[in-house]
Model the fold of this input.
Amino acid sequence: MSEGMGAATGANISAATSAITDAKGNASSSVAMTATPILHLADAHKAFGENEVLKGISFDVHKGEIVCVIGASGGGKSTLLRCLTLLDHFDRGELEYDGILVTKKKAVRRQVRDKVGLVFQDFNLFPHFSVLRNITDAPLKVQKRDKAEVMARAEQLLDQMGLSDKAKAVPCELSGGQQQRVSIARALALDPEIIFFDEPTSALDPELTADVLKIMRDLADEHMTMVVVTHEIKFAAEVADRVIFIDKGLIAEQGGPQIIAHPQSARLQTFLRKLEV
Ligand SMILES: Nc1ncnc2c1ncn2[C@@H]1O[C@H](COP(=O)(O)OP(=O)(O)OP(=O)(O)O)[C@@H](O)[C@H]1O
Ligand SMILES: [Mg+2]
Done:
């Protein structure tokens, strides 16, 4: 089925709550979830010409869950995030947010876009805008929210990111880690239901990486729903509720964070061994 060709489910399944169980079968009280996942992806495919990048990816993300996606370079992780955040589209498969089927209709895409935030590897800030304007521009211009409310939220986010003294600076006056924290604040300012990170620390040196990971750990503690593509395996093992390993366009293994210490498949074992070298 093409993306957008299916019947809109629209209806919210009953909001009965359940709890995630970890690998040992223990209920995790930290991640309560409703029956309708925030994100539902089924059999997603994407090719660039002859290059079949995604060959049938399916997974759900529930409210408050932290899902880390790992896999070799060129394996399609960024492509997956770009399609999930509607910067691109799947060739086929079904994508739903909160039970709403994503179609090619502009109104639907606009509605869904408000639910998702994306933090890129290379920050993608507007270079000529101040930090404050980078954070407030989209909530004001795109979401057309109340100015006082947007400004108050931006101030709170700057404080949370340790950047209160940088509101008037432009991105080139900031370190990479500071720029990435602005980029996280910008994504959060849109008040998304789910936030996607595409290797948020891979352009940073170890010290700045630690700052950004600390912010992400704090978000995890607040139960922000997150999908994080990362090479930071230690971070994934520590923070993720679930780890998804993508290999050759498919999910080759997924499970609780313990799969990093105890991978079951030969492919994940090989991938992790290479990272240790
Ligand atoms: N816009 C595009 N046009 C053509 N091919 C593309 C495009 N974007 C990605 N690709 C190809 O799709 C494949 C997957 O790329 P992608 O960037 O998704 O991998 P990745 O897993 O994010 O890799 P990395 O870990 O290096 O960031 C690669 O072969 C890449 O060349
Ligand atoms: Mg990538």
